[in-house]
Structures are given as structure tokens and as C-alpha cells.
Amino acid sequence: LGLVLYAGSLCMVSGATFLYYDYCVIGAGPAGLQAAYFLHQANRDYIVFERSHAPGSFFALYPRHRKLISINKRYTGKSNSEFNLRHDWNSLLSHDRRLLFRHYSRDFFPNADTMVRYLEDFASLLKLRVQYNTAIIHVTLEKNEQAWNGHYFLLTDQDRKNYKCSSLLVAAGTWVPNVVNFPGSEYVEGYETVSINPEDFTGQTVLILGRGNSAFETAENILGVTNFIHMVSRSRVRLSWATHYVGDLRAINNGLLDTYQLKSLDGLLEGDLEDLAIVKDKKGKLHITLRFYLENRNISAGIDSITLPQDELDNFATRAPYDRVIRCLGWKFDFSIYNRSLKMMPGKGNIKKYPQIKPSYESRGTRGLFVLGTASHSVDFRKSAGGFIHGFRYTTRAVHRLLENRHHDVPWPSTVYPITQLTNSIIKRVNEASGLYQMFSVLADIILLRENATAFEYLEEYPIGILAELEMQTGRKARNGLFVIIMEYGRNFSGADKDVFYYNRAVGEAQHAWQSNFLHPVIYYYKRLPTECEMRLHHPDWPLPRPDAIHHIVEDFLTDWTAPNAHVLPLRRFLENCLCTDLRNFFAESCFLFVFTHQKLPPSCQQGYVRMQGLVGSQELRHQAVQAGLLQDYTHTDFSDDRPPNSHDGSQEQLVRDHGIPVRLQHLVNAKDE
User: Fold this and answer.
1) Are residues 527 and 604 in the same domain?
2) pTM to 2 decimals?
3) If we measure between CA atoms, which residue out of 401, 406, 491 comes closest to residue 446?
4) Residue span of the structural domain in which 484 resides
5) How many domains does the chain have?
6) pLDDT by residue (tens digit) across 277-312?
């Protein structure tokens, strides 16, 4: 039957007329609009399909109680816009400063209606090409050797209009409700339709299926009017402050934990939902039982003929009947519109609600099909922020850069600096980069060393999962070694069962930096690019294969890694050990001496003093250098001859004597002076 349907679809599209675009984007939510922005800025041929009449249709419905859990921190004490994005979880990336979410809401946890208005402005002000009221109902492939990826994507909408694309970006999110079927599940109300008026629950007893933020959000709304609320799920509660994963339970919704632990009737239970069964009595009350009690029994015969758990265990936890049962189990990806030829398969285990994709966000089954936004969260599920706006705005930009290199020969953006700027470049990025901070352990800055380590090339926010493919994916060469800069939490600090508030939970000394628990920068050094085999076989608790050297910058309470002794000095010495060079900056006097006393000059002297570049000396600078012990004070030298103290020749001879320059080199000093 599948072959017949596939053949029928090919026959149907063979005689159809197609509108062609290089890039098709499905969905005008935050990820779709972010992708459209980058395509628009690059002047690419693209179109965005949105089934609703406006962008962000998901936020027009959810969350049901309208309060977002993405923070809107309007004040940080700093004016650096890149740093401030670390604490702005709602804004999309753009060049227009008007499109920062802080201009749309003063609330720390904004209303979802504000997000809808923000997305509408983002699409209209930036003049993004979005085609509304267009629901894509079928996607298939057409083989063609002339196409970018060896095939075209053929899309059909609800009006049977057809479109052809070279590359397909799926940003439709996860919006199909997760439903568990068990005996009596027809009595369950869904999160997507249940009343949000607390008065409708007055004096009722409620059971909630699920233990995520939607479940606790629903409980929080009715906590003050119900008799009691029970919540059941197959897993224990996971608190975001313990797991450091923003998708787990947030403090704003956890009022029921208080009433449970303080014994105010509400409670949490663990159990497999598929083992449950619900029986309705004559009064409309809902009784919880187990599936195996109903085997070979007729539910319609009435509750009196059914054995309930309390009949055998008189203190069974859910023996009290419920007035309502509410399902709050989240959402999953809609696979139904994709033809089997695309091989869009669900993941396995706890990521089965997402499509299978590579660390490059490209489908494992079809080249040229990329998944963006929430649906791409399988790459970093329960690890980082890739399923949320403040994470996927950066992964979407990374995908755009991969596509620019693949299809348009535009290499990954990079900047080349002299090696003397290596320490400063790293310190600057770890202190202000928002992509590294939000997508910790997923996106990394890459430093490619040039020959003889005289310069380096800096690439920002590259997906570390495809580090082995760096040369192919970026168009840059990594022939002389590289540094990888990422942000990490401590290895054993995050987890549902962890006490993250224990005494002495943080370290403050550089020598103990490797024991840092809170988010901190980690620098990996490789003499060569890791291979695909090494990437595939590395330890699952490590984001990267074993490096040739590794350095942790000690965690900081203010997330300000600029302390000269605790942060900068250990980093510089690590870099010097890796490169076998001296990365310090020297005054001209010191470089002058090194010319005659060292076979190899430090890079700062090679690239500055020898080329007659660098900071011009002044009396004030010399005085400060003397006070700091960096230079000797020659102004008060008691010269042995009759020449005045400020005589150039006298100063030169005194300089030679003070630094012990051999007599055979003194003529070179005079020659250099001449």
C-alpha cells in the first residue's frame, strides 16, 4: 500500500506546476523567523510557510495560563549588548535594536501575548518573506542530479498548490499533544482544552498526569480552590536549579511542592501511566485502578464488579475518587506530512518525540533537510538550551553559516589576529559572548593556529558535534593545531538527585579550577583536528575527545573572568606551554636587550619593536613601569665619566653594564644606535 501511495503521489506531482525557491522554511515561529532573517540578510531566494494568519501561532495558545518562563532581565549593570543577551531569553538576533524584547515588556516573566506581538513586529519591520494561511500538508522528494543535494523537495499546501525547493528548513516546532492510551483514558481532559478559570475547579479533587512545567503551571492555577491535587508521572520531579536544564521544573511553578512537603493534602506519585486505568462510577467520580485488574472484565458492567487496588491494600495512595483528571504530557513533532522517501524517523528513548538529526542539525535520512528550533532539541536534550529561544537563535545562525559555505562558497566568518592577541581574544569572548554562554557544551569558539604560531584565526560559535568536519563545513584550514573554547558545568554537579546548595560548593583558587562546579570556560588544545572516529567514541560525559592539553578557568561568582591573577595569568601560561612561546608584552627597552641576548625574540617584540611598531614611550609610562618593577630607573645613575647623566651615550653604556651584556656585544649596541 505504501508503494502504491508513493507512486500515486509521484504521478500526481509529475504534471503539476511548481513555484521554485532555493530555500523553503516550514513554520513562522521564532526559529522560522530567525532563519528567515539570516537568509534575508544574505539576499537569498527563500519563502516561509505559516499555517496561521500571523507568526508565532503556538504562543497564541500556549502556555494556557499565558505566563512565559523565559526571563526578561532588562537590567544587568552593563551596556554591552552581547553580554546582555546572556540574560535576555526572548529576543531574536537582528541588527535592529528596536527588536529587543526589553522594549516590549517590563515583566521578568512576560505574557505570551507580548511574544506574539513581538514576533509580528519582527516579521514586518524586517520585511521577511512569510506566506501566511499556508499549511504544508505533504512533503516528498524528486531525484535530480542537477539539484544542490541530488534531489528537490516538493511541498503541497492545503489548497493543492505546489512548491519546489533545493533546501528545506523545518521550523514547525513540536505541537502534537502527547497522549497515553489506557482503559478509561476517554475521561481525561487535555492541557490544550481544559478550562483555565479557577472557579471551575472550586471544591474539586484533581489528578494531573505529567510532571513538567505545563503540569505544575496547571496546578498552580487551581491550587487555592481545589480540595487537593495529586500528580502522577513515571519519573521523579526534576528541578531546573539542580539539573541546570531550563526545561525542567522552574521555581515560578513549583508551589505544589510546598503544599506536598508541608503536608497540606497535595501530593506527588510515581508510576507508569500505561499501567493505569480509570473507572467512572454512577456519581461521575473517577477511580484510579491498575490495568491488570481489568483484564477479562467488562468496564461497562459497573464499578461494583471491578476490583480496585484498595480492595486488597486499604491504604492505597489514590484510593480517594477524583472529580477530574487532566493530561499535561507535553508535545511531540508532527511526522505525518513527510513522505517515507524523506526518511524522517523519530528518535529513540527519551528523544523519540523529536526527529533524528545529526549534530549539524541536518536530517540523518535526507541531505539538505535541516531541523531548526524546538524540534532540533534532540542534539542537546536535557543538556543545554537548544530547545528554547535563547538557545536555538544561535544554532539557527550556525546552520545558516553551514549552508552559506555549502551552497554559496561563503566560508564561516573568521578574524585573523597576531598571536600576541590570543589571551586577550579569549578573555574578551568568555566574558561577553552570549552564544557560548547559553549553548554551553554545544557551541564553541575555535582558534585555528597559523604556521609557526605567529597568528591565529578565530571562528565563533561552531557546533562541536561536527568538529571533525570543520574544514569541510567552514572552508577554513586546521593544519597547525587548534584551541576549542566552550563553557561547562562541573562533571558531577548537575542532576535531579544532586544537592546544589551544599556547603563549599564553589572553588575560588586557580589551582583548583578543574574542580569548578558552576558554569565556567574550558579550553581544549589539539595538535591536530580530532577524527570522526575519535568524536564518535569519546566518553559520553565529555563534550569532546581527550585533548593534548586542557585548561579550566576557575569559576567566578560574578561570571567575570578578568581577574589578573586568578583568571588571566593561568590562562596565559597554559597558552604559552601549548605554543612554546612567550605571550607577554614587553617595553621597547626589554625588546632591545632581547635582540642581543636571545636567539628567539618573544612575539610581541617580533611583531612590534622589530617592525618599529608598538606603544610610544613617554615619561609617565616609564615612571609607571619603574614603579611596577618592570624597568630599572636609569635617571638617577651615578655615571663615572664627565658626560652629563642624561647623555645618550652614557645611558647606553650604563644600560649595557647593568644588564651584564658581554663586552663583545657592546660594539653591536653602538652599531644599532648608529
Assistant:
1) no
2) 0.87
3) 401
4) 413-579
5) 4
6) 898 888 889 998 888 777 656 555 556 667 777 777
